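Continuing the batch. This is chain 6 of the set; chains 1 through 5 are on the previous pages. Same settings as before, nothing changed between runs. Recording input and output for traceability.
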Amino acid sequence: MVSERLWNIILDSFGKILLPGLTTTIPLAAISFALALVIAVITALVQFANLRGLKQLARFYIWVFRGTPLLVQLFIVFFGLPNISIVLDPFPAAVLVFALNEGAYSAEIVRAALESVPAGQMEAGYCVGLSYMQTIRRIVLPQAMRTAFPPLSNSLIAMVKNTSLAANITVVEMFMATQRIVARTYEALALYIEVALIYLLFSTVLTMLQRVGEKKLNAHMKQEV
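Output for chain 6:
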């Protein structure tokens, strides 16, 4: 049976773990993902438009960030850049790395979604007098983002969990808060299970929101048809 001391530790630590989750983990994931989406859309559009030079640059960026570990990228930015006189605080460094890393993965999702839109949609835009950019913005991109919504939602959920890696560059998020409590109480198993359950709670809420969003998108598409 669980001892009274352990129960007290678990109950006392819940708020101390959840608070950094709400004030650091969630904002870190939200800001990083928002920036990642901007990067992803721009990178995907550059490839979709087949702009020479820029397309090669986009492919190089995707190749580098998809081909190297996220943890190594965090260490390069936070511990490596100071060697060339570029010093970032832990939170901005984590946002930068998470945004660039996720942007590379999401760019491929958005690119595939853009390519899934029938070519006739571009022709339809030209027929009604829209320019290339107007056709992309008003016709192609909205359809592509509907297709990309489920995988992008999955990427957001994965990012929330990956924020635990930010503890390695001293960002005081949920996992680091748990580590500090473990160092003081020596109850590693119970506390790491507790923080895992809190991550599971966050992921479950996001999954529910994803399902709601998908239902609304499907209903909207049926109305258009």
